[in-house]
Amino acid sequence: MHGGQREVNVPVPNDRSTFLSTLPATQSDRRTALAIVGISAFLFALAVPFASVPLERMPAFIASYQSALAVCDIITAVLLFSQFAVLRTRALLWLSSGYLFTAAAAVVHALSFPGLFAPNGLFGSGPQTTAWLYMIWHGGFPLFVLAYVWWKGANGRAEMSASTRNAIIGSLLGVGAALAALTWIVTARDGLLPPLLKEGGGFTAAQVGVISFVWSLSFAALIGLWFRRPHTVLDVWLMAAMCAWLFDIALSGIFNSARFDLGFYAGRLYGLCAAMFVLAVLLVENVRLQAQMARQVGRLRRQSSSERDYHAERERLFSAVVESSNDAIITKSLDGTITSWNHAAERVFGYSATEAVGRPIDIIVPEGRRDETKEILARTRNGEVVDQHETVRMKKNGQPVDIMLSLYPLRTPEGKIIGASKVARDITERKRTEIALNREIEERQRIFETSQDLILVTDGYGTFVQVSPSATAILGLKPEDMIGRSATEFIHPDDLENTRNEMRAARRGQVKRSFEARYYHYDGHEVTLNWMGTWSEPVKRHFFIGRDLTEKQAAEAQFRQAQKMDSIGQLTGGVAHDFNNVLTVITGTIGILADAVADRPELAAITKLIDDAAERGAQLTKHLLAFARKQPLQPREIDVNALVLEAAKLLHPTLGEQISITPMLTEDAWPALIDPGQLSTAILNLALNARDAMPDGGTLVLETRNIFLDDGYASMNPDVVAGNYVMIAVSDTGSGIPPDLIDRVFDPFFTTKEVGKGTGLGLSMVFGFVKQSGGHVKIYSEEGHGTSVKIYLPRSSGVQETEYEALQNVPIAGGDEKILIVEDDTLVRQYVVTQIKSLGYAALEAANAAEALTIIDADAGIDLLFTDVIMPGNMNGRQLADEAARRRPDLKTLFTSGYTENAIVHHGRLDSGVLLLAKPYRKSELARMIRTALAS
């Protein structure tokens, strides 16, 4: 018993249960037929020498032989016709007709035989009639056998489309008509045929020719049967019959001399055997089939009884299963009336079987679900199975219950649909659990997708299984770039062993592990991450959360730099203060000494050298005090534009003709509260540094601009207070500063110039002066491109709002376009992405031109390219914009740079009129420039 079904073994009958005309012949069939043919051949060989021996004339033998032969052939024909009626093959129809022909020919031959029923035979036959009828008889049957062989090979297996009854009637009529015609020819028109028998009883030459032809036809039929494979049982015994047929013709028509000799009688016996072989096999087969049918009927009766018992037991078991099922099992008629109701249905819906059976199914269907029930019932009425359909039903107390329905049509044994069987599973608790689980999964997925930290999941071998989308912002890699790959491909080699040790410790039960490890960014630089890791034994997974320490390390580096500068400032301030005290004594006494030796030129010259050295020392201490922010300042409200123009005039003779000075001043520059002398000195120092960076000449750009440094910029530069500033930018087209030296240029006494060509205090004095004045200084430089130093001076208070300020304070307009930000500095890129997203735009980001082009090719919805101008790699921002325009002619571009717009254009890096947003910029400027670029 498997799944409510029982396997019943019904003995399969032997292959003998099929028809002889289709049943393949076995070796036993072949051996039996061959033995009979062998015996017949042996007896034939014994009879041949005595075939001409005359024997006594016995007409009764002829009558008996012909009658037996006709009966055998008729019975054989009837049996073969019955098989044809089932199998409908043309080959079998021809063979049946052949046996019918031989039976009729034997009767006609007997009636026309001389001395049997009349002295000269019936039908008015002549002396040659019987001989010709014998030849027609013995030559006709082989022709039918040849037709059987032909149709058996051509399409004898194919069924006839015509009526078998009509085919049999046609065969009877055709055989009768053909034999009647032939009999009429050999009786009424026997004179037309050559004589076959001599007057003395011997054979004529025509007889020899005709009998040879008839024998050849029989032999051809035998050969045809032999070569038309595969052989059936009927074929084997038909070949045995044809062998006896050949012996019949040979003894009674070839080897004998006349009628009633030994060959005559022996040949007739062989003919009778030929008629009996197939008949005997068919009769034996029929008896066997009847016996087998009787056994099968008995077996079926026993099986039927067993099946009844089995079905009764099965029904009992099914009833037990239905009643013990945890699912509600209900049957109903096609009009929706409940016909059965199990215990689970009572528990789920609250109605007892007595209350439910006979009532409409609507008692458990909410009002709003009645149409749904009608539709499902209509589908069931059409024979459709409704499987796993979730819906809501109602308990007796009116409480709704979530249900999983499966409905199947109920059919009568004849296949008529009379109702429906319904299985209802209460899934209320499962739905509640699924909702809670889905909510938890959704919450975790949202945390996973929106986390700013890097979340990684690996298997026990360190292969990434899941990677959070934050990998793109932190490592420049898409999650799909990492999933399926080993973590060893991304971890810094020096941190690999420590990471492995942490993973081993986690697997030993130390659940939470915190450690640092460096990963490689897509562009090759290292990213330090602080990791919190844990191991889950049930799922065999490592879970890691990594926090990017780049910003923290940068802030710490800035803090250390500020501490260093403050420490150096305190040291240099103290040294300068004490040195000033010494210089005060020297300068005060050198004057007394100069007066004392005025009449002695050689000593006066020495005194002058000492005085000059003291003056240089005083200048040195002045620079040191400026760096230490301890020099005495005399700030006053000044016009920055006027001071810069005055400085430009003074610089022309100092810098030389090979350097072009270009002032670019904003018309409404704010006034600044500053020491004008110190500011002029600072501009002079920056100009002299620019001149030294342009030994072959170049351009010096002096700019002023009103700037608002916002909280975002202040967060990236701890020494900056957000507010309004006046910017003075000094930009050159010189050799630039190497990246590894950019952080040291403000250190005192640091210089890259040759010995004797600089003290290393020029930039440090500028740095100290600006800081002491409450301002900010920023330097941008690219090797081979030039340098831009920006001084941000606090705006003087107490003035009216300018037109520039009014413009900056207009409402900020955002949008919903998609913008690609290309910036090599990670902190700046994250800051820009945050600002752009806050304006409502969709933001994509790239660290270099190669990444940007990949994103542009993959996303056709990008509206604006916002790119830095100077970037590392084989392609700068301008080249990136050109290539992007070639691929996407409709793509708008907005440039940004640490250089000012005038400096950039003058350096030849951008065409005139190209949109540039100079760093730093406030959110309102960013918003306005983006809208301007999108509208361009």
TrEMBL record:
One of its GO terms (biological process) is regulation of DNA-templated transcription. It is an enzyme of class 2 (transferase). It comes from Bradyrhizobium neotropicale. It comes from the Bacteria. Residues 574-797 form the Histidine kinase domain. CDD domains: HATPase_CckA-like (cd16919), HisKA (cd00082), PAS (cd00130). The modification 4-aspartylphosphate is found at residue 868. The keyword DNA-binding does not apply. Keywords: ATP-binding, Kinase, Membrane, Nucleotide-binding, Phosphoprotein, Transferase, Transmembrane, Transmembrane helix, Two-component regulatory system. This is histidine kinase. It catalyses: ATP + protein L-histidine = ADP + protein N-phospho-L-histidine. The keyword Transferase applies. Residues 314-384, 440-510 form the PAS domain. The chain crosses the membrane at residues 33-52, 58-80, 92-111, 131-151, 163-186, 206-227, 234-255, 267-284. PANTHER family: HISTIDINE KINASE, SENSOR HISTIDINE KINASE. Coiled coil: none annotated.
